């Protein structure tokens, strides 16, 4: 049966913008929409450079531009090189620094420009901001990168034995970077070798992604920043936006932590942390009902845009217009899930403390969804079991439950049904009697061994509701080292979340999360090329001073 191919081209041009073909230094022209304020004269400009069609509803640039122009900002939105209406080769990352510089230079020469430029945007169009920073253009005065990263390892699937690769990252490169249009071809995840499934998809579509071939199956060296890393460039005021439920949260919060501690970037770095996922779905509306779905409902889109733009305007009014002093901006604005926004001078808040929950009764971890216990007492009874073993079968992988990892809150699925599998370990705490506010990093420290030469280990922390449903809060993953019995640390990212009375915390451990993450065959073979896998046994140990705990950052005095 032929493989169905879906091709998505550019949407109609905006009726309220003028498109220009802006020349780059090598003669390639990039399609660029300009939205101007109603008032005549020269204005500061906000530039957005993206690969997802500047005229699509998905990016809602026309709606964002309406908010920005109403505030007196010219808004410039550009299809990056090789995408949709722009010319040039379709390859991500490598041209963004020079193209960013040339576009900013073009803006400064327009009669409506006052030669002051800011940039904003999410994900890849957060990366284009960092690339532009490396170019050092003096007109770039402030940036607002959201749900993004300077590294983008989540969507650049460079496999090596010490990394866990996202399979959805490979599909992203195959779909979005094979042609000017988006070309989506379903991939048969059960096919082995897995690389053959992508080859079949490319053959069916008649296209091929250079970016995919650079990464899979043998990654080739690629410098994302040919002009130098952004943190080595001239610093500019930065409002760093993260989402507690964003699948890029780990990378994004690491960027913020590095920026905040940097001697020159730190004084210019601000944090805006919200209870959103990558696609700007909000915890407040989760799971999303039709009336709150900005993908389809116009009023929901209006509310989403207003929520999105408010901190951007506040930031640019200070650093592009100079209308208010810098001291008027909170250094950190963060959302406490189920409560609302709070401000702080630093992140985590200075009043935060560490709460350690220890793993106990490990033999129960594979029994049912509740499994073993999480509790605050590190001491175990002398006769308490200290180990649990479980099997990783590469031909019966633990399935990924969330349909789209970029839209975790659209469904915010209940994963309790999955947690009764014998290859899924769980440890559950007692219900809290009063609200417990999580505000900062979460880390698991474990002692795990494997009969395989290496193994993946995924850790997730859940809010277990009184009705037994379990909803993920944070996650992390690592590769077990070949040295046996060595302690393993897993960074689960950060969160701001209120665990309400009657709710419980649950830690889940697995060796697979497929097809969101590349499978581990249980051998030393490249998983893209392996035809079959080998079953292995994992052992988790607790007690006897062995690391077996979850370290939380919480608010409130220690009881």
Jot down its keywords:
alpha/beta; eleven-stranded mixed β-sheet; 559 residues; ten-stranded mixed β-sheet
Notes on the structure:
The protein is 18% helix and 29% strand. The mean pLDDT is 95. The radius of gyration is 24 Å and the shape is globular. Strands 13, 14, 15, 16, 17, 18, 19, 20, 21, 22 and 23 form an eleven-stranded mixed β-sheet that branches. With 559 residues, the protein is of the alpha/beta class. The chain contains nine helices and 23 strands.
Major pleated sheet? 11 strands, mixed
Roughly what is the average pLDDT, rounded to an integer?
A: 95
Low-confidence stretches: none
Number of strands: 23
Overall geometry:
globular
Give the strand content: 25-35%
Q: Please give the radius of gyration in angstroms.
A: 24 Å
Give the termini distance in whole angstroms. Answer: 64 Å
* Portion in helices: 10-25%
Number of H- or I-type helical stretches:
9
Q: Decide which structural class fits the backbone.
A: alpha/beta
